[in-house]
Amino acid sequence: MPNSSEIRALLFDVFGTVVDWRSGVARDAGQFLSRHAVPIDAFEFADAWRRQYAPAMEEIRSGRRQFVRLDVLHRENLVKVMTDYGVDVRSISTEELDELNHAWHRLDPWPDSVEGLLRLKRRFMIAPLSNGNIRLMMDMAKRAALPWDAILGAEVVRAYKPSPQVYVDTVEILGLKPAEVCMVAAHNGDLAAARQCGLKTAFVVRPVEHGPGQRSDLHAEQTWDFVAADMNDLATKLGCPT
Amino acid sequence: MPNSSEIRALLFDVFGTVVDWRSGVARDAGQFLSRHAVPIDAFEFADAWRRQYAPAMEEIRSGRRQFVRLDVLHRENLVKVMTDYGVDVRSISTEELDELNHAWHRLDPWPDSVEGLLRLKRRFMIAPLSNGNIRLMMDMAKRAALPWDAILGAEVVRAYKPSPQVYVDTVEILGLKPAEVCMVAAHNGDLAAARQCGLKTAFVVRPVEHGPGQRSDLHAEQTWDFVAADMNDLATKLGCPT
């Protein structure tokens, strides 16, 4: 395990790494689906909604579409998924769709996240580097008491991970060298992109992000600088007292 | 006094409104000046440095220069001011100049700021809308325990107040209507620009921001939506319990 003394700032992936998006979205979707008597499993719906996430961002990463914030993509994807399931979206009010879309603002942290972040915050600058937009991250942080020092991420740099621009521009905003910044994520792909840009990397394993049958990201696929079982373990490995 | 029930987010000017830049800069400049035996009063030096602030930003507001963050402008202005005072800047190390430049990251809040912000945060989203850059605001907040929900401001929208773009784009990032956002500032000019963009306005009087002889911004020059003696008074006027 390398020395952490050079690290000044930690940047966190959020969906899956800090919060449990699947349970949170399924909770709100479940209420919606039963209200409208739609016979779809709430977790299946959450997974289907999430599957639209990568292709929607790819439109922007590829340059085929100008940057729009994630709230906009989530809203478009919601209509797509409902239509795929045969729901007549026109029969549902804009307000109700918007409200369901904000399920992503109301996700619960994993049980170790807040305590781990509080420990890490005493020694490092901590900020999300999520594809979620600023308002989404702010609502989530206020509701869940995530103690961020700033809200960084896709909307600040107007690009989506894993585009190198996201990591490079964020390091520049921090006024640090890439090696003074550590990306923390439960996703090997995110860490690989960060490492390509010279950042340090910390893998936090989240084996049930995608539910009980998860097959991806169950272990570190490269020799990341740090590998931790949860956020508290990461704090310990980075030398933060309890 | 209008009803505050529509307001969802408060945006704060920071230099002068939340923190006492003059004392903080004079403290660090004073140490520097005595170390180099430069016979200039530290407060005079702070004032001279600050006088370069508006014209430097005007280069960017006018479009004559591309956006650069305030740390860069402060650093250029520091060299200018020293040169004006006859200091041989080449005799001073880059590290020492950078360190002094970071005096702006180490400013103390006014005595009422932290308590007032903590009260306001329970009811509203709170964020700086400063011309200071993200890292500057983050360092300041960590040191002074300013409990921001996010760091907004010039660097996020890549424009300087009082350009309308700063207020308009920030309201858009918040996903709110202008009337749901209130600008809080000790400066009538900042509030006038925010009001032009449809935001609500709160004037907090800071009668010694510029020292004992201050002549500007001693009172509200328009009928702002709220006028407060300090941040605690503002919290009371916005209906936040102690």
UniProtKB/TrEMBL annotation, chains A, B:
Presence of keyword Mitochondrion: no
UniProt keyword list: Hydrolase
Regions crossing the membrane: none
Pfam family, one: Hydrolase
Name of the molecule in the record: Haloacid dehalogenase type II
